[in-house]
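Lecture 7 notes: from sequence to structure.
We start with the chain below.
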Amino acid sequence: MSKYSKLIIFILVLVLISAAIVIIDSSVDNINKTMPEISDAIVKGDSDYNEAVDLVNERYFQDSMDKAVSAENNYNSSLDKLLDIQDKYSSDVNEVQKEYISTVIQELELKIQAVGKLKESIECFKIESNYTGTNYASEANDLIYEATQYQNERDAIVSENPKLFT
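Predicted structure tokens for the same chain:
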């Protein structure tokens, strides 16, 4: 093999390595850029959910439903982004990040179920089916309580790995 051929092969290997580094960096950058959006949407969803509960307790059913739908949209948006990260970039994240993503997904799935129960309770309260509405509201509370366990687990992962999540 000539020196020229060896040089060409060497250059090609360098180009491939450089391309791989750029792809890995861009996927990590994409994850790092998306995570604050996910976090903000979860916080907004939590706020909307709590407002929906307050409004239903005050018997403002339409306003409560609007807030519940907003909470659901925020949770679904976060869940979709996390599932996308999990699907596209699973090879680019470490085990702690995978655990974090999995925990948040479980939290969001429960919160989405809770919103569904809250919306059902609102519909029942609208037609003065209070017993059934109360049952749905109680189921929503149970789901939120369970989701809070995952939220606490998520917070623990962050506090145990501050360099990874700053």
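Points to note: The chain has four helices and no strands. Residues 3-57 form the longest helix (55 residues).
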